[in-house]
Amino acid sequence: MINLFINGISLKSDIDENVFPFNIPAIQNLRLRFKKPVTFLVGENGSGKSTLLEALAERCGFDAMGGHKQHRFSAEDYSVLGQNLYIERNPKLPIDQGFFFRAESFFNLSTYIDENGNPSYWGGRELLKQSHGESFLAAFNNRFREGLFLMDEPEAALSPQRQLSLLSIIHGMEREGKSQLIIATHSPILLAYPNANIYQLDENGISLVEYENTEHYRITRSFLDNPKRYFDMLFEE
User: Fold this and answer.
1) d(Cα 206, Cα 28) in Å, to the nearest integer?
2) 3-state class of 135 per DSSP?
3) Which of 99, 103, 120, 236 could potentially form a cystine with 153 if both were Cys, beta carbons 3.0 to 4.6 Å apart?
4) How many structural domains is the chain composed of?
C-alpha cells in the first residue's frame, strides 16, 4: 500500500450552487481520491483546476501565492472554497514539508525570495536574474525534495525540452518514495508521465481518464498528424 500525505478531498458542508466557485460542475460534486504518488488535474479553462488546487494549498498550510510554508506574504483568510474543503490526511505523514508552485504568481514569489532569502538554496543565482523558464527549473531542481508538492501549470514557462527535464525530476521524487505531487496542467508532455492518475474536470464533474482519452492528447496528436486540415478549418473565409 502506498502511503500518501493526502488520501482524498471533498466538500464538508452545504453549498450554494449559484455562487462561484460552487457553480462549477467539478466542484459542485467534489469527491476525489488520491491513490498514486503523482496525480494530474486536467480540463479546459474555467473547469476549476486552479481554483481547486489553490484551495487545497490553503488548507494544507501554504500561502495562496505559493512557496514553502515559511513563505508568508498574502492574506491569511481562506477562500470560500478553502473554508468548505475537507481533506482526508494521513495522520502518519504530517504535511510539514513541500511546496505550492503557482505559475501565475511565481514572479511575485521570486521577488520575495530574492529580497529575503538565500540564493544558495535556489542554485546560487537570484531568480529574477534568470529567464522565466530557468527560474522555474531552479525551484524544481533545488527545492523539490520531500513532502507534498502542489503545482499549478508548471509548464507555463518551459520549453518542450525543459518539460522533459521536469518529468525526470518528478520521476526522481517518486522513486525516492517520500513525496506526493498533485499537478494541474495543460501539457500533453507532462500528462504522459507513466503510472500517474489523471482526473478530468468538465461539465460532468470529475472523472478518472486514460492519457489517450484526454482532449489535450487527442487534439495535439490530431493536429500534428495533419496541420493543414486544421488551418483549412480555422482560416476558412
Assistant:
1) 10
2) helix
3) 103
4) 1
CATH number for position 130: 3.40.50.300
**CA contacts within 13 A on the Cβ side of 67:** 23
Torsion angle defined by CA atoms of residues 70, 169, 51 and 208, in that order, rounded to the nearest 10 degrees: -140
Render pLDDT for 24-56 as a digit per residue (tens, 0 to 9): 999 988 999 999 999 999 999 999 999 999 999
- Within a domain: 217: no
Say how many CA atoms lie within 13 Å of 88 toward its Cβ: 12
Write out pLDDT tens, residues 90-131: 999 988 899 999 998 888 888 888 888 777 777 888 888 888
Q: Is 233 inside any structural domain?
A: no
Q: How far is CA 87 from CA 9, 149, 188, in A?
A: 5, 15, 28
Domain-located, residue 120? yes
Residue 111 covered by a domain: yes
Residues whose CB is less than 8 angstroms from the CB of residue 218 and which lie 6 or more positions away in sequence, other chains included: 212
Cα–Cα distance, 237 to 35 (Å, whole number): 49
Cis peptide before 21 (omega within 30 of 0): yes
Q: Which domain holds residue 96?
A: 6-212
Place of cell 504530517: 94
Q: Which three cell numbers stand for residue 43?
A: 480540463
CA-CA distances (angstroms) from residue 100 to 18, 54, 109?
Answer: 29, 9, 11
pLDDT band at 75 (very low <50, low <70, confident <90, very high): low
Share of the chain above pLDDT 90, in %: 67
